[in-house]
């Protein structure tokens, strides 16, 4: 079938993207689902820094590539060997497909699925195929999803069936921002009631971490960012303390407000400077967690003696250490109960013709979560 898709042909084009137009809206040929695959009509797709990092070249991927990884949609067709989904089912797309058989999957850590990671790096679906063509040229898949499209063929293991009563533009956020932000708090760090928490970087993932900390029962939630409007939103969501990272006294202020530092600090900005700030606002014996993805050439340096003598812990968190089949329905139910108000993080809805300009807004930090409606 023919459909519209946002295709990236060259990474690292100059900004503003509204002028250089790295994403070209193309008419591509999409193949029907093969064995273990499904065809989904994309209803909504969130714009995430992980998309931006491919566009600006920070995360090298094989090109050309159909971009987009955080989305929700409706099943249109199922391929052979898919018996647990049917046309009309609503699904949330998950950007790491899990094979269910490798060692990380067997250990209950599907975010680290080895075949899934290899397929994502190669730009293929889980079983190794590509289902997109443009003028006879193969187009790569982004994270097994390629969600900035009208339709997507993907592995059955890239989706989770969800409650059909949930609006699909809201459901899309659960594929990345909610899993990564809330999951980092409740799964990776396992924040306990009464703990103190700091979140550095208040984009869609960071603000979800704020919501996750409140959900976990943290008694103090410190929000840190360079944008005062995002600090204001964090306060509205329930953050007890907010500090601007551009203030020379930010670290001292955060440590003083929490009696010497927080129990858990989360870096969600994808920048080494933010990770350094995050580590320095964590107390002795505390845990620093990062879910940010900086350029692979960048390194984070830690004072060795402080790691040992202060019994610090530094942890990475990918997909919020989630088990999507378990966590997506749980988080959605918490949202429906009003205990995880992720809808308050939605900034704007955009169309294909505004996609490049929307990434300018994301790069400038002027938005939280924009959603593409194909």
Molecular structure report:
This protein has 374 residues and is of the alpha/beta class. It has 2 domains: 2-175 and 341-372, Alpha-Beta Complex (Quinone Oxidoreductase, Chain A, domain 1); 180-318, Rossmann fold (3-Layer(aba) Sandwich), CATH 3.40.50. It contains 13 helices and 18 strands. It has helices spanning 17-20, 49-55, 103-106, 114-122, 168-171, 177-189, 204-216, 228-237, 250-257, 272-280, 304-309, 324-336, 355-363, and strands at residues 2-8, 23-30, 37-46, 65-66, 70-78, 90-93, 132-134, 137-141, 151-155, 159-161, 196-200, 220-225, 241-244, 262-267, 282-290, 313-316, 346-350, 369-372. The strands form 3 sheets. Strands 3, 5, 6, 9, 10, 17 and 18 form a 7-stranded mixed β-sheet that branches. It has a 6-stranded parallel β-sheet with strand order 13-12-11-14-15-16, with helices on both faces. The chain has a 5-stranded mixed β-barrel with strand order 1-2-7-8-4. Helix 10 links the parallel strand 14 (262-267) and strand 15. Helix 6 packs across helix 7. 50% of the residues are buried. The mean pLDDT is 97.
């Amino acid at each position: 079938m023919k459909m519209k898709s946002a295709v990236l042909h060259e990474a690292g084009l100059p900004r503003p993207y509204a002028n250089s137009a790295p994403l070209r809206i193309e008419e591509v040929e999409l193949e029907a689902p093969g064995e273990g695959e499904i065809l989904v009509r994309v209803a909504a797709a969130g714009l995430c820094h992980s998309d931006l990092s491919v566009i600006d070249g920070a995360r090298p991927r094989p090109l050309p590539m159909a971009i987009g990884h955080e989305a929700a949609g409706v099943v249109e067709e199922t391929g052979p060997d898919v018996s647990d989904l049917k046309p009309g089912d609503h699904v949330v797309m998950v950007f790491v497909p899990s094979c269910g058989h490798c060692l990380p999957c067997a250990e209950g850590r599907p975010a680290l699925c080895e075949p899934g990671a290899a397929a994502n790096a190669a730009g293929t679906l889980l079983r190794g195929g590509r289902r997109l063509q443009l003028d006879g040229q193969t187009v790569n898949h982004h994270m097994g999803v390629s969600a900035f499209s009208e339709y997507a063929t993907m592995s059955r293991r890239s989706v989770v069936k969800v409650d059909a009563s949930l609006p699909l533009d809201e459901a899309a956020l659960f594929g990345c921002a909610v899993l990564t932000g809330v999951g980092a708090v409740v799964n990776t760090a396992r924040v306990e009631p009464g703990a103190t928490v700091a979140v550095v970087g208040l984009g869609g993932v960071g603000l979800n971490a704020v919501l996750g900390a409140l959900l976990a029962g943290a008694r103090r939630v410190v929000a840190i960012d360079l944008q005062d409007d995002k600090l204001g939103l964090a306060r509205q969501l329930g953050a007890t303390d907010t500090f601007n990272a551009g203030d020379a006294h930010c670290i001292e202020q955060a440590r003083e407000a929490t009696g010497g530092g927080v129990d858990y600090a989360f870096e969600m900005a994808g920048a080494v400077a933010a990770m350094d700030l995050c580590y320095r606002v964590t107390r002795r014996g505390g845990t620093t967690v990062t879910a940010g993805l900086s350029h692979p050439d960048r390194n984070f340096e830690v004072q060795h003696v402080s790691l040992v003598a202060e019994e610090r812990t530094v942890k990475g968190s990918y997909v919020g250490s989630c088990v999507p089949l378990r966590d997506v329905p749980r988080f959605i139910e918490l949202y429906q109960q009003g205990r995880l108000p992720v809808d308050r993080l939605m900034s704007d809805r955009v169309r294909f013709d505004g996609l490049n300009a929307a990434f300018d807004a994301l790069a400038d930090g002027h938005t939280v979560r924009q959603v593409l409606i194909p």
